[in-house]
Automatic annotation (TrEMBL):
Organism: Trichoderma lentiforme
Gene Ontology molecular function: sterol 24-C-methyltransferase activity
Domain of life of the source: Eukaryota
Pathway assignment: Steroid metabolism; ergosterol biosynthesis
Designated name of the protein: Sterol 24-C-methyltransferase
Keyword S-adenosyl-L-methionine: yes
Length: 384
């Protein structure tokens, strides 16, 4: 698999990206988020973001996939990831909430509780204690960081490549009175903007799948972790059951990649090799989506599917109706009408369609056990 290294962006490029993101999102980061934020964008900048993101995927089918095409995505991972979240963040917040990750569902457990429990599980797996300095790599709009601060009493620094997500995360921290416990920094996890040995613990929730090289990303995490510090990650992987020569499998992987801003998704074995090559002592690793490790009564992908029988309350039904197949048909038709009336910016419908395709592929990949979004790896940086 590819093992490219990356270089830090020049200050001029960073300033240009920042200026672009400001024009694109106008003041929508101050709004309530979701659909309201989605309609408050600059049309021309949105069009440009759509072109920049979808140039990597348009007309690309599983049967035509070449190593060169995959490599071009890997080289462009930074802009691909940044533009993906420029386009998808408001839809995520509208449909899913403020924590951009999957979770397991126990008996009687409502959607929000299950999401929070998944975060608590990672925090306790890496032994986060009050007062620790912790790094959240790829923090989204800060939902998990806020929950982990409340759950453990630690301090969390959230890092994210996307300026819009960082401004939303900062705003939520102010709203919840948590600014003394939270910092949010814009940056690329391939070049972490922190000195060596800065953090007691580092966690990643479904983010380093965007990396051009998992080993290099983990090496950066190793560098900023104090000796003896612990790193825990919920990683997205294709499982051992995935066969790249099977076109159906490959199409599922490609649809997940295109609808989720992923340059190249790896297999479990690549991840296990990467974390150890980065220098970590691997303390534990297992797939939380694997039934034998699992206390779930519903599969992790159920909110995206068609099965409403797992809903625990009316509120769950209403939440899931924004995410699942039925809800997607209605909300995406509504979004396309908004775009036609020029209320939503150009390309909003295309983004929604691409997310819907990814959602179907995630469900399919989950059902066939070809894919997991929750492979847990815990590694320690040796003391000496
Ligand atoms: C992309 C990575 C690495 C992590 C994000 C995981 C999930 C939070 C997202 C993956 C697919 C997303 C979709 C939605 C919300 C966020 C995800 C579940 C929607 C339900 C948002 C509302 C849209 O109308 C449909 C989306 C389908 C995909």
């Amino acid at each position: 698999m590819v093992n490219s290294t990356s270089q830090a962006l020049l200050p001029a490029d960073q300033a240009r990206n920042m200026a672009f993101d400001k024009i694109l999102h106008k003041n929508s980061s101050n709004s309530q988020g979701g659909l309201r934020a989605m309609i408050n964008k600059d049309n021309e900048a949105h069009k440009a973001a759509v072109v920049e993101y979808f140039q990597h995927w348009d007309e690309k089918k599983a049967e035509d996939e070449t190593e060169a095409v995959r490599q071009s995505r890997v080289i462009d991972y930074a802009s691909l990831t940044r533009q993906y979240y420029n386009l998808a963040t408001d839809l995520y917040e509208y449909g899913w909430g403020e924590a951009f990750h999957f979770c397991r569902f126990a008996y009687g457990e409502a959607f929000k509780s299950a999401v929070n429990r998944h975060e608590h599980y990672l925090a306790s797996s890496i032994g986060i204690k009050p007062g620790m300095r912790v790094l959240d790599v790829g923090c989204g709009v800060g939902g998990p960081a806020r929950e982990i601060v409340k759950f453990t009493g630690c301090h969390v620094t959230g890092l994210n490549i996307n300026n819009y997500q960082i401004s939303r995360a900062k705003q939520y921290a102010v709203k919840e009175g948590l600014t003394h416990k939270l910092d949010f920094v814009q940056g690329d996890f391939m070049n972490l903007p922190f000195p060596d040995d800065s953090f007691d613990a580092v966690y990643v929730i479904e983010a380093t799948v965007h990396a051009p090289s998992l080993e290099s990303a983990y090496r950066e995490i190793f560098r900023v972790l104090k000796p003896g510090g612990v790193f825990g990650v919920y990683e997205w992987f294709m499982t051992d059951a995935y066969n790249n020569d099977d076109l159906t499998h490959r199409q599922i992987r490609l649809d997940i990649e295109q609808g989720d801003g992923i340059a190249q998704m790896l297999k479990v074995e690549d991840g296990l090799a990467a974390i150890q090559a980065a220098g970590f002592t691997l303390e534990t690793h297992y797939d939380l989506a694997d039934d034998s490790n699992d206390t779930s009564v519903a599969p992790w992908y159920w909110p995206l599917g068609t099965d409403l029988r797992y809903a625990q309350s009316l509120s769950d039904v209403l939440t899931v109706l924004r995410m699942n197949r039925f809800g997607r048909v209605v909300s995406h038709a509504f979004i396309s009408v908004l775009e036609l009336l020029q209320i939503a910016p150009a390309g909003t419908g295309k983004t929604a369609e691409s997310l819907a395709k990814a959602a179907d592929a995630l469900v399919e990949g989950g059902k066939k056990k070809l894919f997991t979004p929750m492979y847990l790896m815990v590694g320690r940086k040796p003391e000496f």
